[in-house]
Amino acid sequence: NGVINTERRFKMVKQAKSNPALLLGDEETRVIVHPLAILHVLDHHSRRQESRVIGTLLGRREGNSVVEITNCFAVPHAERGDEVAIGKDFNKKMLALHMRCSKEVVVGWYASSADSVIADTSYLIHEFYAGECEDGDPVHLVVDTRLEGESLQIKAFRSSPVVIQGEHVGNLFHEVKLLLESNEPETICMHEMIKCKKEDETTALQHSMEKLYELLDSTLQYIDSVVEGKTIGDVEMGRQIADTL
Question: What is the pTM of this model?
Fold first, then answer.
């Protein structure tokens, strides 16, 4: 689904990147990321089959200066040399599902990394997401998945076009200010995760899964009863079940 070849163009971009003066910072732009998005990236990376993983960032924009990342989902891809294949159809279907229950829009894409650096083929993927964003200016989030030390290394980038002799040959990435922000439910969840880590993790996980199983079992019993005509269906209950799923 969508193989793109860099060939000569990307070699020219790499030469341009070697000049630090071209990597200008953007002091006005702020990227706000929520914990849920970071947890999705780490979970995707832990289940990976590829050397790195990518996915679509969802959220909202406030003008040209503030981008808020509230959610994301994984997108399959393959890299071979200077070629990248992206699961365009998969991305389209997942986005359509999200749009049914959310007003979030595509604001960029993420990639896992072992050292918080941008891969050589990132330009190609960035070009694809430029077409997915309404304003054509996606944010690139790079998450260091080594999980070393006391902090998690996360960097956000925007890009500027590189034009040589009137031909657009690629983009230069420049880092922008990144802030971590959480709403009340996310804060409560994070505190509980930290609390469980300090306690017996296996016991806490077991209790959580047992409770989840009980809830799923009672929901299935209710649905079966409605389908079999033993219970009169409740429209509001149906909506709540659909939203939860």
Answer: 0.67
